[in-house]
Amino acid sequence: MLPLKRFTPVGFGIGWAIALGFSLSAQAATLQNGWFYSIDSFDDGVTGGAVGGGVFEFYGLAIKAEAETLTIALNANLPLSGYAAAEASDGVIHWGDLFFNFSGQDFATAAAAGNLFGVRFNEENDSGVDAAGVYSNVTPTSVVATNSGFSSFSDYNATVLSQGGTPSFGDLPADTNYFDLSAAPPNAIAAGTKMGELDWAPNLTGLDFASLGAVVSETIAVSFERSLLPEGSFIAHVLAECANDGIAIAAVNPFARPGTGGPADTSVPEPGSALAVVGLGLCLIKRGKLWQRA
Questions:
Q1: What is the model's pTM?
Q2: Which percentage of the chain shows pLDDT scores above 90?
Q3: Are 32 and 208 in contact (CB under 8 A)?
């Protein structure tokens, strides 16, 4: 097994991050065997009013780049089929959609400028687009109101803390201002332009959530053409439809240059380079959780 390497973005893009009002407390993704991992808190999922360990506990998100493809893997207790809940408008609470932000802007600014990309990997969820796939010019929305979810990230954080849990979003802290913490958590694509299809049988060689302490419960993975997304640093996040848990990954130029395959140099980038984006990403997303009344 390869030794773990972790990017340490302290000192990168600080001026940019401060100018945008971001706190510098997040960490960047962990690299192992060609996969970049974000590992979430293991006691911040909220299921049936209880914090930790339930069906809405998310453990990790991993991304691997090869010459032609990007592969996304999720490790959580929530299956792709979702969680049956009478409180949900359709009777099931599913995974939300996955968002990518390469812009170096906060989420709302990137959304307003049409700079978000999205992946709908759950064909039964409440997404506003018709089919699974990769989308550009994404407009986000929140579907927490129809899934018995938390009304805001702040509400979620307070609930987790009140029961002794540790709210986090993988690489991003719970007190991030990447999102408006008082607003409904954005967790679904409202509209977008479809660019490509998903492969539901990706190559998962080297994927090992357990080696990083995650519980190997449900692993959901898809891949798609790498050329559909820009190269470079990004922040990606996914939430449950109820926003009862979520996870984000802050990836600092993690992939090799086009056509070379494999991971890029694992040393810390030079000041003023791609890390400026992570300076922003350092305080990324906060996670929301489902509050189901007993």
A1: 0.81
A2: 70
A3: yes
